[in-house]
Each structure stands twice: as structure tokens, then as C-alpha cells.
Amino acid sequence: MTQLDEARKGNITEEMKTVANRENVTEEFILNSIVDGTIVIPKNVNHDIKATGIGKGLKTKVNATVGTSTDIVDFDEEVLKAQVAVDAGADCLMELSIGGDLDDIRRRVLAMSPLPVGSVPIYQAAIESIRKNGAVIHMEEDDMFKTIEKQAKDGIDFMAIHCSVNVETLRRLKTQGRECGLVSRGGSFISSWMVENRLENPLYKNFDYILDIAKEYDVVLSLANAMRAGAIADSTDRAQVQELIVLGELVDRARAAGVQTMIEGPGHIPINEIPANVTIQKKLCRNVPFYMLGPLVCDIAPGYDHIVSAIGAAESAKAGADFICYVTPAEHLALPSPEDVKEGVISTRIGAYAGDMAKGIHNGEKDLAMAQARKALDWQAQYDAAIAPDVAKAKRANRPPSDDDACTMCGDYCAIKIVNSWLDKADDDVFNTI
Fold first, then answer.
1. In this structure, what are the phi and psi dihedrals at residue 163, rounded to the nearest 5 degrees?
2. DSSP class of residue 433?
3. CB 336 within 8 A of CB 328
4. pLDDT tens for residues 294-330?
């Protein structure tokens, strides 16, 4: 039985209790939201982790991706990066390797992760076909489903499934044209297979088979956005909207089957279009959780794309997005290093936090604690309130002040220290005589 099946029966599961406790909401709220489809709990029956909730009324969650490339295959580093992401406060991981023994690295990440782990099964199916047959176009349809089942059996908690790329979606993409084309790796695998074989997407045609697998292991389907724009110039176009219409229809079928779903969203999108994108997705897809990929609000900042994404994350969370995939400083340039992963997680957490404050998920309680600590010149309390205490502490220690109360930005002329010495001590008579 899936979390959705149990919720429909009125059964509050241990996972629902855990999520309610972590989010400081009622168990009934979690149960009813799962029934409505506005919250999902990605937890495979074969993966022993602490349950995490994603959706409306909960803190916006942050996802960190790890995985090898064809140029850099270092399993130890990928596991280290996964641990760095966990330590930096990520809520979920995705294992997206495309180099080396794909089963081995996935299982290693699953074994070490206390967080939900996602995957993109078409990567493995396509790469194994390339290794075996020389090209992705020779991939057997059954291999796609065998890979989905294998990864589900391993314990993958949520899967990005590229089932919304169909003939009509591709026709719209081809007809309208794009400045940067199709940038989804999974989308490129599927669409090239379709065009070369002159066949409909098997993941779309046989979606019920995917539902059977997902239901058996209670895998959350993260219905992938293969038509997302890879450039600001291509944002919110006909191909993307056409795919979203298909995704909404697939959501209906998944929910009828008792399978939890969420929808992936655009990657490159100007900041003014973010609210409209969230509204359209929620409207067409029954308000299921929206998983935004970044998003990147401009294209001109390689090396600083984690900052660009943090801006997009803040606006997306504010508009109602529920789940944000991080972007690292290495985006568009290289495979991320462990330090890039840390920077990406923290930057995205900041954006999500700012957006959550705007939509009332929290009321700035941590900010109040920071303000009070700064007023008291209590540096340890400031570290305790910080989103990245180790970074803050190291930055101060790198350029220590001569006066422990202040910092080297203002030194002897610290405004707070000066004001503390006279304003707080002044009584009402002082102002009556001015």
C-alpha cells in the first residue's frame, strides 16, 4: 500500500507522523494533503530513511544532485559530495551518474543517505544501450522498464520519468524553433529514439506499466520537464506548455492508480515569468507539488549561477513552488566539486528560506534571533542562528579584530557598540530636556 492508498483509507502512517512532527503541523493536515495530492512523501518501501514531506504548507525543500560524468568517474568523490550535501542541509539527493558502474554508485549513495534519493532511469537505460549497441536509438523498449524496476527495487524514492515527450510535444518544438534547442539530457535521449525509430515514446505509451512499478515500491513519480528552456529567450514557449498539458493528464492517471506524483518545472526563466509558471503548473496539474529546476533567471553568469539560482529559488518559493533543485557555481562549466556542492546547497537554501518567509511558512524567527544576537554583540549566538555557522565563524576568524566585541569591518567605530553605550542607558529625562 502506498502513502496515498493509506491516506485515502484514513490511516495515519508512521511516515505521516514523522513529517507532521518535523514541520510542526497536524497529522490530519498531512493525511488530508496527501489525499488531495498537494503533499507527497518520497520513501521507497526498501529504503530505511526518515520521512520527508514535500508540498503545500510545508517548508520548501532543497535537492542536491551528485553523479559521475563520462570524463570524471570517481565514486569516492561522489559519495563525499553526497555527504557534503547532507551536512550542508539538503533535504533530498538525486544520483545522476552517467559514467562507470551505474548500479554500484547508485547503491552506494542509497546506502549512505539518510535522505530520500531520486534518479533518472532513462540515463542508465540509454547509456547501457550505447555501451552495448553503439547508440541510444538501438535501445529496446523493455530495457527502459527493466531499468525503472531495478532502480525501484534498489530503493530509489523518487524518479524523474520522461513520459510527457510525445509526438505532439515534439511537433510543437520543431514547428516553433528555439534559440538553444532542447537541453534536457533525458529528453534528448527519448526524442532522438522516437525520431530515429519513428515510434511513440514507450514511457508515454505504456505509462500504466510505470504506475504498476511505482505502486509496488511506493516510488514518487517526478514527472519530468523535458521541454524546459535552456535559455531565457526560450522560456514559457508552446513546447513547454504543451508538455505541461500532457503532464496534467498523466497526473490524473497516476493518482487514480494510487501513485504519488510531483511535476518538474522550467530551468531558465526570467524572474517576472516565475509566478505565471507556478500558477499554470498548479492549475493544470491538480496542485501537485512543483519541483523547480533552479530556476536560472539570467544566462550571463557562469561561475556564479548558484547566485542566479538562489534569486530564482526565492521567487519560486514565494510564488508557491515546493521543491527546488540546487545549482552550483560549476553549472554549465564542469562537474561540481565537493566545495561547489556545498555552495550550491547553501545558496539554494537561502533562496528557499527567503521565499518561505514571503509566503508565511515561517515568520523570520531565526532572523529575530540573529538581530538580537547582533544587538548583544554575542558572536556565538550569531553563529548559532546562521544558516552556515562554520562559514560565518571561519570568515570572522580569518580577519580577527583587536576588540573581541566588534569585527574588522567597523573596528572601533562599531555602530551597535556605540549605540549600546549611550542610547540604551538614556532615561526619559534626557529627551525631555532636548
1. -95, -5
2. T
3. yes
4. 999 999 999 999 999 999 999 999 999 999 999 999 9
- 50-64: per-residue pLDDT in tens? 999 999 999 999 999
What single string gives the DSSP state of each residue in 384-420?
HHSSSHHHHHHHHHHS--SSTTS-TTTGGG-HHHHHH
In contact, 281 and 266? CB cutoff 8 Å? no
Rounded Cα distance, 66 and 76, in Å: 11
Per-residue model confidence (pLDDT) at position 421? 81
Pairing outcome for strands 54-55 and 39-40: antiparallel
- Compute the Cα dihedral for 101, 105, 106, 108 and give only its sign: positive
- Is residue 420 scored above 90 in pLDDT? no
**146 neighbors 121 (Cβ within 8 angstroms):** no
Residues 6 or more apart in contact with residue 205 via CB below 8 angstroms: none
pLDDT surpasses 90 at 114 = yes
Q: Average pLDDT over the chain, rounded to whole?
A: 96
> In the prediction, which pLDDT does 430 show?
72
Residue 286 class from Cβ within 10 Å (0-12 exposed, 13-18 middle, 19+ buried)? middle
Burial (Cβ within 10 Å: 0-12, 13-18, ≥19) of residue 193: buried
Q: How far is CA 108 from the centre of its chain?
A: 21
Q: At what angle do helices 75-87 and 102-112 cross, to 10 degrees?
A: 30
Q: How far apart are CA 428 and CA 415, in angstroms?
A: 22
- State residue 424's pLDDT score: 72
How far is it, in rounded angstroms, from Cα 42 to Cα 261? 9
- Half-sphere CA count of 2, side-chain side, radius 13 A: 29
pLDDT at 25 over 80: yes
As a whole number of angstroms, the distance between CA 91 and CA 51 comes to 10
Confidence category of residue 422, pLDDT binned at 50, 70, 90:
confident
Closest residue by Cα to residue 105 from 154, 62, 71: 154
Rg of the chain over all Cα atoms, to the nearest angstrom: 24
**Residue from 94, 197, 98 nearest 139 by CA:** 197
Q: Could you tell me which of 225, 211, 300 has the C-alpha nearest to residue 260? A: 211
Smallest CA-to-CA distance from 269 within 290, 288, 249 is with 290
